[in-house]
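Issue 218. Parser rejects a valid record. Input:
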Amino acid sequence: MNNKQKEDSMQTKEILTAVQDNDTFLITYYAKKYQAIITRRGTWTKPNTDTKGKHFVSKGNDVFVYWDLDAEPNENGNQWRMATNPTSVK
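Output the parser choked on:
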């Protein structure tokens, strides 16, 4: 991530506050899989459970694990997704 991208992205504390304080949110980030910037609707807590998402730093990147409300569940019913260096959360 270059300096311009860091300036454009939200600060980690702001993102954590936004995802933890809202029932649902829109998270925007660059997805390697699609090679594009995407926006997804998500929650910090898996629906109908107490299982929370998480934040960690990997190779200098902020990674947020959230429940993607728009995702097709995988064979295990999993809709957890990882957003690396999100640019915004609303």
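Fixed in the parser; the record now loads. The radius of gyration is 13 Å.
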